[in-house]
Amino acid sequence: MTAESRPPAAAGWATPRVVGQPLPRVDAHERVAGTAIFPSDVQLPGMLHAAVLRSPHAHARVLRVDVAKAERMPGVLAVLHDGSPGAQIAWHPGRDGKPLSRLFDPHCRHEGEEIAAVAAETPYQARDAVRAIAVDYEVLPAVVDAEEAISPGAPAVHPGGNRVPGDRYERGDVAAGFAAADEVVEMRFSTAAELHAPLELHGCVARWEGEQLTIWESTQGVYAVQSEVAAALGLPLARVRVIGHYVGGGFGSKLATGKWSVIAALLSRLTGRPVRLFLTREESFLVTGNRPASVMRLKAGVKRDGTLTAFEFEGLGAGGAYSPNGAGLLDWLVRDLYTCPNVRCTTTNAFIHAGTERAMRAPGHPQGAWALEQVIDELARRIGMDPVALRRRNVPAVSQGRGGMPYLTTGLDACLEEGAKAFGWEEAKAGAAAARRAGGVWARGVGMGAGLWIGGAGGDPATVFVKYFVDGSVNLNMGASDIGTGTKTVMAMIVSEELGVPLAKIQIEHADTGTTQFATPSGGSKTVPTEGPAVRAAALDCAAQLVALAAADLGLPAAALELRDGAVVAREDPARRLPLGEISGLRRQRVVVGKGTRERNPAGSVICPFAAQFCEVEVNRLTGEVRVLRFLGAHESGRVMNRMTFDNQVCGGITMGIGFALTERRTLDRGQTGKLCNFAWHDYKIPTALEVPAAIVSHPIDLPVPEANLIGAKGLGEPVTIPTAAAIANAVFDAVGVRITDTPVNLTRLAGRIAAAAPAERS
Ligand code: MOS
User: Is the CB of 453 within 6 Å of ligand 1?
Assistant: First the structure.
């Protein structure tokens, strides 16, 4: 029996035994012990090392490249540049599909653009040879700030100019909405670009065996890399195998293919040797993407009773040199999060001479929440309503941004209500106010924010195989990557739930285009709701085949039997049972292969996850230092599949949000060279134990939604970072009466504004 013929409506789990438990990761030991082989650990016999020459200028034209000296350097086996045969490969498709650039484009539109690459016996020889390449540049004027880029006279990144209009969205009558409001708030916000900083760097090892290319890549999607590399090199898919066992973080930056994979493949073909090309941290900061800088203006109106009357939003995002989507999804929460009849949103992208944006955990949403959730907080203050109450007053039942389509389920109100209760919102507000009255240098405050994520439904296609062996062990075969969220663990738990096999007996084969089934990249908070249902379908298919085989032995119709506790049992007469290992058909064929595919999502409704977060901070009235004391994340993502990996995501997402609010900023040498100033972790600060409180509480709203898919779960990885920064800003306002409108917080400026706001408190 195949998945296509499985009974269509397997019921949701009423009382799951394995699913939902707080189980440690199935690969925890190898991850912690260091025995897991990540792509960056791969060492092959005869392997060469590659290094890339990159533009030191934010904007320049390459007039001449002389590789003669580099080619004669010791250990060098190949040098590749724009003039090399076969190297003129199109890159960065524009909106009309025409490429904006090529692999070693002589027109460098941002610092770090690839000019040449070397393969040598050792990494040191490769770097030395890169330094020996002589290049003549014509240095051109650069613009690296979004607002400057769309101003008259700015140097154009592309011939069409730097301004790319985004969507213009409108519903209702915005002017009438503002006229009907009792209070109107208008504020300007900005957010700094955040750099991708996964622990494992970006890169790959490439090897040719005859006409067959294999790439070990640190990626969120092996099939994505396969198709993009095959297209770049003009190869059939079947000749490109991509393996991505383990990935040391990606957060969106490893959804797409980098030039490094194609360069490594070309160098490997030239030399006939495997080639390793992993970027340095400095290189990764230049070319592996970023959460684009934004400037936002939001005007909102509210009636005294808490009815929202109008939103008007303008957003500008810096897509970098090659993405027209720098403002992508900036306005989604304004459109969709709260009930409001009159909304107008305008977004604009600016090309700038800097690294291209890439998806970063909930693209657009934390930026939009930074604006929306602070404005809602301000509206609540103006009308004297609690901010939780104002939000609960405006929880929508339908997705207004999608023309009023109903949410299949929404836990937004539960996140707000139960989260506030679990956090002790009322007591914390009163406690912080009392602490402020007591005076002192440190002012205490509480704040909160809410959110939803546009994605997280998952969907087809996905295909999974589950092989049940005669000894009761299982092989689970799926193409998806586990990007650190615990995907493998959750999938094994689904198999265990259906087949009664302990996790220790489940072997997982994954993320390899040569041996596993097609999967879309792991991202968009969709991996569990995409792959999970296919895994369950495959396990159900396996179970049905085992039951059919046992029916022959038991002399009963399959319809009278079910798989329970490691045996096939007669439903009406449990004494008639056959342990799986004794099924004669299984003993003969040795293995049963179940196949599962992802069903289509139900039509006519919207499936997405919801969030509310609460925090308590202290702000130093003299220095502006912000200490986050505690956080609570209340998250509704359908069924909680594994309480431990669920909580991991909440802690990780809040940690990233703290970085967005307090520490992370790509600093470009604006107005001068345009170059990156903070190109290492010393100067580009991701949050550490100094900024992240031990007291992060995850409060799941466990709301299985069996109508959505076979496992009843929605995605979690991205909503966990959406409201965090805004909640901190709201808490800072509660503490000192000053709004941080620009990320990350500037302590000097904050201290100055605290002093200006309350000069008496300094003495
Ligand atoms: Mo995510 S930004 O889709 O990895």
Answer: no
Q: Which two tokens stand for residue 258?
A: 């980098």
Measured CA to CA, the distance from residue 707 to residue 710 in angstroms comes to: 8
Which residue has the CA at smallest separation from atom 4 of ligand 1?
A: 252
User: How far, in Å, is the centroid of ligand 1 from the Cα of 560?
Assistant: 45
Q: Is 401 in the pocket of ligand 1 (CB under 6 A)?
A: no
pLDDT at 760: 53
One DSSP character per residue, 60-103 reads EEEEEEE-HHHHTSTTEEEEEETTSTT---EEEE-TTS-EEEET
Within 10 A of 414 (CB to CB), how many other CB atoms are there?
19
Ligand 1 pocket test: pick from 195, 290, 656, 718 the residue with the most ligand atoms within 8 Å of its Cβ: 718
d(CA 616, CA 398): 32
User: Relative to the CA of 250, which ligand 1 atom is closest?
Assistant: 4
Q: Which of 375, 456, 532, 384 is nearest to 714 (CA)?
A: 456
SS3 233: helix
Distance CA 606, CA 227 (A): 30
Q: Spell out the SS3 assignment of 715-755.
A: CCCCHHHCCHHHHHHHHHHHHHCCCCCECCCCHHHHHHHHH
The reported pLDDT for the residue numbered 257 is 95
User: 251: Cβ below 6 Å to ligand 1?
Assistant: yes
Distance from Cα 75 to the centre of ligand 1, integer Å: 39
User: What's this model's pTM, rounded to 2 decimal places?
Assistant: 0.97
User: Which residues are known catalytic residues?
Assistant: 718
Does 358 sit in the ligand 1 pocket, CB within 6 Å?
A: no
CA angle 443, 447, 450 (to 5 degrees): 165
| Rounded distance between C-alpha atoms, residue 427 and residue 630, angstroms | 14
**What is the mean pLDDT for each group of 10 consecutive residues in the chain (763 residues)?**
46 93 97 96 98 98 98 98 97 91 98 98 98 98 98 96 95 98 98 97 98 98 98 98 97 96 98 98 98 98 98 98 97 98 98 98 98 98 98 98 97 98 98 96 98 98 98 98 97 97 97 98 98 98 98 96 94 95 97 97 97 98 97 98 98 98 98 96 94 97 97 98 98 97 97 84 43
For 187-311, where are the alpha helices, taking DSSP H only?
222-233, 259-271, 281-287
| C-alpha 366 to ligand 1 mean position (Å) | 13
pLDDT score at 9 = 55
Handedness of CA 492, 498, 501, 506 (dihedral sign): negative
Cβ 361 under 6 angstroms from ligand 1? yes
CB of 722 within 6 A of ligand 1: the answer is: no
Q: Report the candidate in 612, 615, 699 with the shortest Cα–Cα distance to residue 432.
A: 615
First to last CA, the chain: 80
C-alpha closest to that of 620 among 754, 452, 435, 437: 754
- Give backbone dihedrals phi and psi of 427, rounded to 5 degrees, phi first: -65, -40
**Residue 376: what residue type?**
I
Nearest-atom number in ligand 1 for the CA of 252 is 4
Which residues make beta-bridge pairs with 177?
Answer: none
How far apart CA 353 and CA 194 sit, in angstroms, is 16
| Owner of token pair 């995501």 | 649
**Residue-wise DSSP of 304-337:** TTS-EEEEEEEEEEEEETT-S-TTTTTTHHHHHT
* Token couple for 347: 């977004």
Any ligand 1 atom below 6 A from CB of 247? no
Q: Which of 195, 218, 251 to mutate to test the pocket of ligand 1 (most atoms within 8 A of CB)?
A: 251
580-599 burial, b for 16+ CB within 10 Å, e for fewer? beebeebeeeeebbbbbbbb
Q: How far is CA 394 from the centre of its chain?
A: 28
Are 448 and 612 contacting, i.e. CB atoms less than 8 angstroms apart? yes
